[in-house]
Design brief:
mainly beta; 11 strands; seven-stranded mixed beta sheet; single chain
Length: about 120
């Protein structure tokens, strides 16, 4: 059974940093990504990684970094220079090979972890 379990969320002041982790079990994945969803808003793409390639939207480029530890079957999201508008529930996702920016391109999802950035 496939499971994705996120951790590392919390409350941080603007300008601070957090590192999210997503541990996968049940199988390995070629492609993994992070999305976020703020109250009243649609789920938003944050980062993706596949076979060493990464991709970010302009909203987080230069501040967020996605990485993975193949041996631990874990993907990370390092978030620096956090802003109040980064406040959301962050979700880990896994799917088929390639860089994917749309939620429907991912097959498995974690339960989410809350990130709150205070001003």
């Amino acid at each position: 059974q496939v499971q994705l379990v996120e951790s590392g969320g919390g409350l941080v002041q603007a300008g601070g940093s957090l590192r999210l982790s997503c541990a996968a079990s049940g199988r390995t994945f070629s492609s993994m990504g992070w999305f976020r969803q703020a109250p009243g808003k649609e789920r938003e793409f944050v980062a993706a990684i596949s076979r060493g390639s990464t991709y970010y939207p302009d909203s987080v480029k230069g501040r967020f970094t996605i990485s993975r530890d193949i041996a631990k079957n874990t993907v990370y999201l390092q978030m620096n220079s956090l802003k109040p508008e980064d406040t959301a529930v962050y979700y880990c996702a896994a799917g088929r090979s390639g860089i994917h920016v749309r939620a429907e391109e991912y097959d498995y999802w974690g339960q989410g972890t809350q990130v709150t950035v205070s001003s």
